[in-house]
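Q: Okay, next protein. This is Alternative oxidase from Thyridium curvatum. I've checked the sequence twice, so it should be correct. Can you predict the 3D structure?
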Amino acid sequence: MLSTRVSPKLCSPQHVAKLGRSVAPLAHGQCLLVYPASGRLSCTAQWQAHHRQAQTPRSFSTTSANQLRDFFPIKETKHIRETPPAWPHHGYTEEEMLAVVPGHRPPETLGDQFVWKFMRFCRWGMDLATGLSSEQKSDKKNPTTAVAAVKPLTEAQWLTRFIFLESIAGVPGMVAGMLRHLHSLRRLRRDNGWIESLLEESFNERMHLLTFLKMCEPGWFMKVMLLGAQGVYFNLLFVTYLISPKLTHRFVGYLEEEAVHTYTRCIKEIEQGCTPKWSDPDFQIPDIAVKYWRMPEGKRTMRDLILYIRADEAGHRGVNHTLSNLNQKEDPNPFVSAYKSGAHPPNAMAKPAGYEREEVM
């Protein structure tokens, strides 16, 4: 955990003296445990003072930093050394990751417009639940491309949003993969590569979540929110995928647009020095991330980690928008197919709006 609100008792002068720089005052007699940082903050001192007084984050995490438990500690057995990921990450070049940009596919049909508006409603709900102020929100006229805001988010706010987003993002691929698997069994027909991509997407999103859980332990409020959101979300996707897989993939494409936007803004604020704890040279990302993305030495900062995750989301964005454009029952998955011309499969990261059917079929 990078930061958490604690009780007024822990804000006593005696306790503050023991903790030194690890305590920052908040309003209403509370304080904030923070990771000591040596990174330089480019945001103004005036904003920092105002932010400390006005910010009132929700109690998404209630465990003090020195009591943070490991959510999934290594379990020693007599013979097993390690359990590798079922889908090893294929990796990216730095150029590929830096080339990712926010994008948006304009709705073309009534169905597209409906799922787009529903996605905006979901985004509003997440902003409300995670306590974003109006000054921390980006341009409403360009919600998936504008990354500038009057005030940046704190590290604690970012982690709250990441955990909530990734716990939801891991659901669609599993639901779609499960239903297509059952459809294949029921119809006694091949699925032509859709199931594998959808399940791998779900696995990848779960690895994002596991990585962030190594950095922040959710409290009871967050856990209740996730339980309710996932229960509604899973059942809603289950029904909608049975009715219209095309619209469901379009909705997931819009969800991934939001994810790319979120991580792009986070990268920008890290580069601007607005997240001093993550700029600290002593800050280390979790080992699970280093192993999964095979991150090289010297490229293991928080910014590097977010670049990898953003690239994953950009791939999911292109895949789902493309799958929505295809014939759901007959077309093969173009991203895992071999082409007659010998050409490589299309690069989902390169096209935010996805490929049209005639481009890949």
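A: Here is a summary of the prediction. The mean pLDDT is 80. The first helix runs from residue 13 to 19.
Q: Noted. On to the next one.
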